[in-house]
Structures are given as C-alpha cells and as structure tokens.
Amino acid sequence: MPKDRSWVLLGDRRLAAYQNGCVEFMDFAFARCDVDNKIRCPCRDCKCRKWGDREFVHKHLLWRGWDKMYGQRRWTLHGESEEQYIGDEMNNTNHTEILEVAISNEPVDVRDNMEDLLHACLHHDHHHDQEDLHEEPNPETDDFRTLIEEWCIPVYDGCRVYTKLSFVMEFYKIKSRGKMSDNTFTETLQLMRKLDFLNIPDSFYEVKKLIGKLGCGYVKIDACENDCMLFWKDDLNLNACKVCNASRWKNPVENQPSSSTSQRKRVPKKVLRHFPLIPRLKRLFICQKSAINMRWHAESRCNDGVLRHPADSDAWKEFDKKHESFSLDPRNVRLGLATDGFNPFGSLSSKHSTWPVILMVYNLPPNMCMQRSNMMMSLLISGPKGPKNGIDVYLQPLIDELNELWGSGITTFDSYTKQYFNMRAALLWTINDFPALGNLSGWSTSGYLACPSCAENTVSERLYKSNKQCYMGHSRFSEDGAPPPPSGDEVLSKTEGINVTFGVGQTVHRASQWRKRSIFFELPYWKDNLIRHNLDVMHIEKNVGELLLRWLLNILGKNDGFDNAKEDIGKIKKPPSGKSGPRFPNLVPKLGKYHKLSSQSKKAVCDVIANVKVPNGYASNIARCFGEDKIGGLKSHDYHVLMQQLLPLAIRNVDLPKKLASTIIQLCSFFRELCSKTNSIEDFRKLHSDIVKILCDLEKLFPPAFFVVMMHLPVHLAHEAMVAGPVNYRWMYPIERYLGHLKSFVRNKKCPEGSIAECYITEECLNFCSLYTESSSMNISAKANLPDRISAQTWERLCDQFHSISTPGDDGKVI
After folding, report:
1. Which of 56, 239, 313, 641 sits CB 3.0–4.6 Å from 725 for a disulfide?
2. Which residues pair with 468 in a beta bridge?
3. Regarding beta strands 333-339 and 425-431, do their DSSP bridges make them parallel or antiparallel, or are they unpaired?
4. What is the pTM of this model?
C-alpha cells in the first residue's frame, strides 16, 4: 500500500484523490476478507465496529468520511501486515492497543497525546525521549520537564480519561461560556482540591501561566490617548507623548517614577493589545491534520480553470511569478487582513468604538478559510474613539512581524513531514468597509474623487440643491469597462513627499486626495499586489438595496426627492455664481420622466416581501422591518436576501415601466451572479460589461441625486472578482459575524477590551487543544470540533435518497 495516505484527511470528498484512494483501499481489503464478503467499515461513524459489503462501505466513506485515527495507521483489521505497511514508525506506535480499546468502547489513555502536545508547544522534536531532555541544560528544557511532570499526570490515580491539562481545559471552557469570574473559578478549584485524590491546580493564576506556555497569550503596549505614538521599543520608558506631550498615565501625579514610599500601580490611559502572529502561525503546523491542510492550495486543489479559491486567481498567480522563492514552498502562508470598529456594549446610545485587526489564512481549503476558529486576532485597539487615519500607529507591531516573516522567515516544525522548515508569510490584501478602506489606504473616500479605483479619473459633480456628490457618466466605460485600480508604483509616486504626523498634530494635505502613504508599503512586496484593498461587496450591496427601496417607495429625506431633479440638473448646466462649471460637460444628465410607485403598488410590494416564508435562519423577520412609510431594522444580510431573491419577485406585477423593472431585475441578477462561490473568468468578464449597461440605463430612469458613490462602486466589483477570485473570501460577512462573537465576550463593561482579550485567548487555547487531541478520547468541545448539525439518522436517509448519484460502476469508479 502507498505510504502517503493524506487523502483520508481531505475535507472535500468529491476530489478524485479521495475517491481513488477509497477504491484502492476497498480493492485491497476485499481481496483479503474471509467473512461473507464483508469487511469492517472504517468511516468516522462506524469506527470499524460495523460490518458491511462493498456497496455499504463505499457509501459510508463517500458520505461520512474516514475515521482519521485509523485512516493513516496500519490497516490491521483489513489484512495489512507489518511488512506491507511502509509508513512512519511513529504512526505505528501502540496502534493495535489503541484501536482495540477504541473498538471495545473503552477510554484511551491520553497522557501520550498531552506529552506530544507540550513537546510541540515548546518546539521540541517529537522523537526526543525523557533522558535526552535531562541532558539539555537550558531554561526551555526545565520548563518542558516541569510541564510534563505537573500537567500530564492523570487527574487522579488510575484515571484514563482526563489528565490534569485536559481537565483544566474542559473546566476553563465552562468558565468562559458560563461567564464565571476569576475569583469564582479559583474558589471552585480550591474546593475541589480538598478532595485529596484530585491532582488539579489551586488558582486561576496557575491556569493562566499554562495558557501562556501553550502560546496563547498577548502583550500590552501603552499608547498615546490622541493616537500619536506607541510607548514601545526606544520609547518604552517615556511618561509623556513626544508629539502632543499628553501624559501616558491616567493620574498626572503618577508621571514621576514610583518610589519606595508609593507602591501605587500606574494605569495607562490607552492600551493596544498585541496577539503575536508568529507563534500562532507556527501552531498551524503542530497538528498533523492542520499541517496537511496548509498544503491544500498546492497539492489538493482542483485546477480546472474555475475560480473557487483565491489560489485560482490572477492575483495569487502573479504574486508567485514575481516572488518565485516564496512560491516554491507551499507551506508559506498567505494572509488577508480585516478590521472594523464595533460598539462592545449592548446600549446603542454608547459611542464606544473598539477596533480589532483580524487575519485570515488562505492556504486552507475553501470550507476552512473563513471559519471563525481559523481567524486570528492580531491587534485589539482600545476605544472609546476609533483610530481613523492614525490606525497606522497601531499597525506597527504587526508590520514588524510581517517584515520578519517575509525576510528571514521563522524556523518551524512540520508535524506532517517531521522536519523543520523556514516558514515565511505574505499579506495579500485587506478587507474593509468603505470608510475603513480610506483609513488603511490613505485615499480620502469623500469629495469629488471618492472612488479609490478610478482615483484621479473619477467623474463627479456637486448637486447644490440636494447637497451631495453625483457620480454619473458611466457610458465612458462602455467599450473597455471600468479601469483597474492604480498600481503600487503609481501610488508610491503620488504619495512621495507626504509626511504625516498622526494624532492631534496630524497634517492634512488639501491639495491631494491622498492623506498619507499607507504603512503597508513598508512591506517590500505590497506594491506588487494586484489588489491591495478590496471593495466590500456586503456593504455595497446593502447600500444599493437600501437606495433602491427608498427611491421606489418614496421614503426620502427633505433634499433627496424627485422634486429636486430639475433644479439639480439646471445648476449642473449653469453653476451658481463663483462656482466652476460641470466636471463632465459632455455627460450632463437630461431631465427625464422619473417614476415612483403608487400607494397601491407600494402596498403590493410590501405585502409580497412581508408574507414570504423563508427557512429558519435564512433571514431575520423582514415583515416587522418593512412598511409602506418606513424601512427600519434590516441587517446587511436581509438586504442581501432582498436584492438576490425577494425584490425581483416583488416588482414583477406592479405599475412600474417595463424598462425600469427590467433594469432593476438585471441589477439584482448581477449581484446574484457576482456572489456565486464558483465562476469562470469569462462569466466575470461578462458581468464587467453588463454592469456598465445597467448603470447607464439607471441614469435614464433615476434623477442625479440617486447616484451617490455607492451606486458607482459596483462598476468595479466584477473586475476585482476577475483578479482576486470569488467575493465570499473578500467580503465582510464572516468578519461582522466574528465581531458579534467578540462582542459576546464582554464581561466587565469598565474594561471591555480586557474582557475580549481574556476570553479570546481562552477560546483560542480550547480550539488548539481540541484540534490536536481530537483523535483521543479527551473530547474538549470547541468551535474547531463541533458536531454536525444534521443528525446521523437524517444523514443516513439523505445518503439513501442520493445513492444513485454516487453509485460505484463496474470499473470501481464513482459515476
């Protein structure tokens, strides 16, 4: 049998590698069976306890997947001898004993798993034995020996289910989810310690030290309250800001160094919490399963020209061409960055703004890239005010790490190959809403040149009556489509000479739309990226849907109505005295016959949308948010459902002109096709030309005040999809859900960021331990290993219904 059995760990069981591996296994097993032409089923549910014929086993392996514990070991229950098995000797250790215990439903001794986990966390080779460790006279070895002795012992003598470490992790999970205070946690541990036979810690402090050893910690960096600077590196010991001279500490009296007579602890006014990226990336290769997944984009991806993953995109391929040394090792990490502010309190009246900086790993398979358990929080910027343009000050620790990961790299142990390698990492792009995009890129997203893709070629005009900017004239894109965003070299030349002092002394460059040169250009490869800052499809679709509904239902503000159209167009043609002429004289809009729904049609539209029944969890209760005279309480995903499903249905039979209804339906279809998880370059190219025609038709049907910048941005979305791949890897939906999850961490409202940081490292530690030990009997339940929501009985019934779709043919292959 082949040595490489990594196919049993593939997440996508539709891949040819997995299906061919299953056929090869069955050919081998059934050639050696001697019990009524049946073998033990090694799927993850049967676990070699049930017997079945070829059809039974094949169906289970295709629909349920392999038992990962058995899949990569010697197949002793299917006739494989030790001579036939040519795998790694470490994979065979105690295999027969472990498998026999698993089949008999008895618990497995998990001490070996815990020792391996702690070996990996302290960066030791798994093959070192205890005697070798005693011979290494360094502090790291002493820490390792202490952890092995204190945390890998059974929780009581004779226990084969829990070690001291696994018990504490399970109890820590209860603390986190049950909102247990630190004192209550300590008191509970002390109460259980009175049972003399239990080997458990006696305080929360000991548990926190363990979490730090597992690499799940963070560093506090003091910051100026005016976002001018960080008190770190050479400025670590300063007591006041070098820019604005503001005190570092909350009490000015405490600016002086503490003396022996005063033991009061000085409290900083603002703190940046930095979650080091390097140890978290190294942890991705500690577990064999995650180490295999980190190679997925190079070894298991289906390369058939269809865009399913960022690795299929031109942005990824062009990056590989320009940086060949980086692309040679598939284990090098590709990252995406997202940030946004959120209110950590339940009260909407609070204006507190907390800004986490989140990283996504794109090496992983499609079903894992944007999972919450695989997102890493790198920075947590404290409120109450957002950093705005000064966010570059807080990004400095992350940029330093990214530069280190790009330049020299980090020596990392790969548990799959059992070898060390030099891990490097690169940041592909950022994902933000439109205002945050301006903060990160340095381009001002307001005014005449608000579009960051058109840049200086943006065409807009000021509507003095409606008091807003108008972005029309999309007919200029009819031949070649909208232009690509400026290249990195162009941005560098435009921002040359712009020196910004952040904070209260921040300088504003009125002569240019560029307010700064982004800190990301300190990364040597950043200028080579084809897409640096993504336009967020989620917020654009939401704003377009809201605009359409407000204008169709005539739910407008004082200056937004149809009545202003004539005066707006007149002032574009003849600007007020002292004002310059129109910015697009050849594209001045004409006064047309603008349409709005009658009262009867408005009621018909509202009734259709309010009475539609959708599956549970598909959307919120839209009926309570939707009325003839108001629209309120709709979330971004509700507008997603409205635009792609409900609005085309609702306007089919109302008194709108056929041309207007057809154009709106085409716009909805554009977003539906754009959000497809799989598409081809040709499909996106067609969308790129279709959206220009749709916007040109809308210019004939809606007044100029309708065309704010959010109605212009869709013209660039299809081009970004052609370059960077499917939008579901580059929009804010998973990020917004993640922010909502972080919001649930707030326990102490006096210090919300501290609560978020503590709960985050708790969950991170649980996810890490549960992923590493999922093959043992220690079931630490966490996000990484939650069970499927479909029951086994339902899944069995679905398998039977769709059995004809995946029936083995005469040649053993799947039809």
Report:
1. 313
2. 463
3. parallel
4. 0.78
